[in-house]
Amino acid sequence: MADWLFLLLTVAVSCLAVVALTLLRQRRAGDDDDPSETPDVIEYMTMMIGVVYAIVLGLAIAGVWEGRSSAEEWVRQEAQALHEVHERARIYPAEVRDGVRGDVDAYVRHTVTVEWPYMAEHGETTERGEMFFDRLRRNVTDHEPRTAREAQTHQALMEQVALADEARTAREQGAEPTLPGVVWVGLVAGAVIAVGMVFALQIRRSGRELVLAGLFTALIAFLLFLVWYFDSPFTRGLENPAEAFTALFPQVTDG
Prior knowledge:
- There is one protein chain.
- The protein is an all-alpha fold.
- It has one domain.
- It is built from ten helices and no strands.
- Helix 2 (about 40-90) runs antiparallel to helix 3.
- The chain starts with a helix and ends with a helix.
């Protein structure tokens, strides 16, 4: 199911549930029911609950957005470091250069075509991807420089491999959802309480009140959807998570 369709269904179901419960409550209310007699303390509690929940929800959105930005930056760093290894290897002898570039191409191809779908589904990287990267690291570190220029390039290549390894580790750690389950329990429970306080205010079924209740519910449903959407950046949060690789290695990823 497309994400936008899931959003529309979530908002629609939430709004319909609130409207239906309001109409049902109004139908069951007795003739002596007077909505104007809502105690002032309930209005105060509703305001405080709304403020507290807004702060918590805002922090959750900020947290998952920061996680998305970090994931995007780690992917860019990994792709850029591999690109530097691929290009700077031209200083090496032909046999070593071709071996290093072949390892980079094999790793990039596996990452884009195999590892990314696997990571999105299982929340972890693949052992084969780790094997490709270890082979690349061995080919770079095991080469003995023969000239001063090769020695300088060798050190630079080792640094780039270390950067790529750091980015890969961060990508693996960020493959799972950012927010723990207990936070989601709090967010959903808070949403139910915030919307439920609408009924504590004894909302009537006038068109204006129903529209406001529906818009309030739709807003909360939309914000929760944003948290869910960006909570797993490699699965949903990034439009094209492998864009950095496809941009720097078109000769590998286009095939």
